[in-house]
Design goal:
This protein is of the alpha/beta class. It is built from 8 helices and 19 strands. The protein is elongated and about 65 Å long.
Length: about 400
């Protein structure tokens, strides 16, 4: 196929999921000319994400820097959602509903108590509740619930609506959308100059942003020292339709629990949809919905909320989270001049959308990465890490 060369743009964003679109929108607002390369923009992992904005209840030991990034993003979400809604006229399904994390047995209760103590040491707002107090808030919870943590600062947003709104916002801001996949990064004189697309088009740009989610580590043409250690982490998810019981919502806030060692969450939408997820599977780029995955989610959800098995099952799905060795994102310039990263958000892609967009847009506009994003520089991984593809080839 003959190559078609397009004129240079200030910024080329490779990947049109919510991260790529948000970076493109914020960059265009700064007056930069922006092109997004994606065969189906707005329909990435956000299509199967539950949309919990829960930096406090998702806190894990050793992730204090990620916690700070998550809190910074969560604090921006109300204004971000309002601005995006005003720009597009679309509702993002943003709700400041809080999260209730519960324990189902004595071991879970002890673990949750430990987490609460850790949260308190960090100065986070989380209230310990007895099992009875948990059931008073959410009457559909199982009688076996032993206690829980209420975090009122956790929120939620609809990932699908977010993707649709960002796509509309990009169009309104003059972002060009090129509907193809990236075939190869182009490099001249030691600097990234753009991408050759699968349709033969050669897209050139002053700066290229790799925001291709789980595929960010797979793009040919990137020198070994700048390869991104991103791998796909599969997650299966369910969508059900809630019914009103006794003039009360089935669930009124995000609910989380650890069941048989696996993390489970239930996210009730204002429109009556209930999202249940998610499995964590190291299965490469497989997105098959399996009977086992659906069974495990329903089994564990039934143990947490017994009435859930009476609800209509609307949809099953599977997506790929972009994971990194430390489960934290890759933000900012890579070892290759002209190439920046906005990927590797793992389970926090929806949560970290506002802060990622702001940080990358500032870097692209000024050359300076904000301090809040500095700990997540791709440079923290000095040695190249094998990608899913290279690992597969090594086995062969």
């Amino acid at each position: 196929m003959a190559r078609v060369r397009t004129g240079p743009t200030d910024v080329l964003v490779v990947g049109g999921g919510i991260i790529g679109l948000a970076v493109a929108w914020r960059s265009a607002q700064r007056g930069l000319s922006v092109t997004v390369l994606d065969p189906d923009p707005g329909r990435g992992a956000n299509r199967v994400a539950a949309g919990m904005l829960a930096p406090v209840t998702e806190l894990q030991y050793g992730e204090e820097e990620l916690l700070r990034l998550g809190i910074a993003s969560n604090e921006r979400y109300a204004a971000f959602a309002a601005e995006l809604g005003q720009a597009t006229g679309l509702d993002l399904g943003y709700r400041a509903c809080g999260t209730l994390a519960v324990a189902l047995d004595a071991d879970d209760r002890a673990e949750l108590r430990e987490l609460h103590a850790f949260q308190q040491r960090l100065g986070l707002e989380a209230q310990w509740l007895t099992g009875r107090e948990c059931r008073r808030l959410e009457p559909m919870l199982a009688p076996s619930v032993r206690g829980g943590l209420l975090v009122t600062g956790d929120h939620q947003v609809d990932g699908r609506r977010l993707g649709t709104a960002l796509l509309a916002a990009c169009a309104g801001a003059g972002v060009a959308l090129h509907p193809s996949r990236a075939a190869e990064l182009t490099v001249e004189r030691g600097r990234a100059t753009g991408v050759r697309a699968e349709d033969g088009t050669l897209l050139t740009a002053g700066q290229t942003v790799l925001a291709a989610g789980s595929w960010s580590g797979e793009l040919p043409g990137i020198p070994a020292e700048a390869r991104l250690p991103v791998r796909p982490v599969k997650g299966q998810i369910l969508r059900l339709r809630m019914e009103t019981r006794f003039d009360r919502p089935f669930l009124s806030r995000n609910v989380r629990a650890v069941v048989r060692g696996g993390h489970l969450y239930l996210v009730p939408r204002a429109d009556g949809e209930l999202v249940v997820g998610a499995t964590t599977e190291e299965q490469g780029f497989d997105t098959t919905v399996t009977a086992g995955g659906v069974y495990e989610l329903l089994r564990d959800a039934h143990e947490l909320v017994p009435g859930i098995t009476e609800l209509p099952l609307l949809e099953t799905g599977a997506g790929l989270r972009p994971g990194t060795p430390d489960n934290a994102p890759l933000l900012g310039p890579t070892a290759l001049p002209g190439l920046a990263a906005a990927t590797g958000h793992h389970r926090n892609g929806v949560l970290l959308t506002p802060v990622t967009a702001d940080a990358l847009a500032e870097y692209l506009g000024t050359g300076v990465l904000p301090a809040v994003a500095a700990p997540f520089s791709p440079g923290r991984f000095a040695e190249p890490v094998p990608t899913a593809r290279t690992l597969t080839e090594a086995v062969r």
